[in-house]
Amino acid sequence: MSLEAANVNGPAGPETVGIRAYSERQAMDWSLVLASQGIEVALDRGVEGQAWALLVSPADETRARAAIRQYRQENQGASWQHMVPGSNVLFHAGVLLWVFAVTLIFTLQGELQRGLFLSPAVRAGEWWRAFTALWLHHDLAHLGSNVAFGVIFLGLAMARYGAGVALLGSLLAGAAANGIGLAFRPTAYVGLGASGLIMAALGMLVAAPMPRWRAGRYGTKLVLTGLGAGALLFVLFGTDPSADVLVHAAGFLIGTLLGALAAMIPEARRRLASRLGAMLTVGIVLVTWVLALR
Question: Which of 16, 188, 275, 294 is 20 to 30 A from 85 via CA?
Answer without folding.
Answer: 275
